[in-house]
Please model this.
Amino acid sequence: MITKDIYGLLNDIPSHVDYTDLVEELELEDVPKERINAIINILDSEKDIYILFRASFILTSWGIDQGFQKITQLLYNGSIDYLIPNNLKLKDDTYKHVLSSYISYWAANSDNGKNEETRKKYINL
Model:
């Protein structure tokens, strides 16, 4: 079960942000370091697979390595299959979300001059 604190970490948009309603689209400079660290801590302590997926998805979208490592681990061990079903098409949309976070990870790291390093991570997937 998701607590109010974890829900806030994974969903709240800072009051000064007016460019998005999605936490994964926040610019890293708009996210307090304490919040990032708290979400990273979720990766090591949480047992609920959806919360783990959501935390790793957000961190990956922000370009943070711990999120990339965890979402890749969840992807390869098969624990996120059909986590996000598309009820209209009776398909699994989980992999679309993973791909979206991978694209955001590459973009965030490319903007920070880590394009080659990120490219090597993708080749090793």
About this structure: The mean pLDDT is 91. The two ends are 31 Å apart (CA to CA).
